[in-house]
Amino acid sequence: MLRNTAFFLCFVLAFVVSMGWSQPSRAAAQSAPSQSEMAMARQLFQEGVAHARAEEWEPARASFERSYAIAAVPVTLLNLASAQAQVGQLVAGLESYRNFLSSAGDSRRAARYRTQAEQAVAELEPRIAHLTLRVEGLQAGDELTVGGSALSRAALGGDLPVDPGDIDVQVLRAGDTVASESVHLAEGEARVLTLIAHRAVPSPTRAAQASVGEQANEPGVAILPSEGEEADDSSVLSSPWLWTGVGVAVVGAVLAGVLVAGSGGASPYQGNIGSGGLRFR
Length: 281
Known about the structure:
The chain has 281 residues and is an alpha+beta fold.
């Protein structure tokens, strides 16, 4: 029935365009679109009608939406509502029909389409799906999204009208997903969905950064000294007693090597010297 109504409205409104552009609504009159903008809105409207005649509903919806954004003409809103319903945007289409009925007033032209708009509203209302969302463990600052759109916390626990089909629900905390669910709602279906917001799981980038921070405190990881520490080290290295001790140790090591080589036996030392340096265990 909506398809037949859409065709009827498109053909009738095409005739309206040929006879003269409808007067803007009171809200549109405040913005006062220029003549150039009105010409563009008219062209977009005609493109929408052409797409609707060919049953190309998504291009028709896009054209009507752009036209109405430029010049808020009630008959454009009426055709936009029809195209929105045809592409499955039932909630948006229903709101557009209601806005037409509330903004068109009692003008003679609006009266011509009031019956069709009221009939479309009656057909769309039972097709809308409804979702009641509840979230446990919700914290201050958490963000809610339903179908990719932000949801106010005030909507939690209420009857939320949604388009039938697959719906993704997410709870985000500091950019991380702490709860998510995907549900499929049929036309007219009502469902209650409860999510539990768990502790946030850091993203791979944040986990890598945290790992680097932990490694800085692990044994065996070099930590650069501060300027004061560098001054202390230099004072120790400059001590003549340190270098005297080092010299004695080197001489002792050389003598021990000579004795071991002269004995012809196996070395009595079992160290952990490997290729490339010395490590202390």
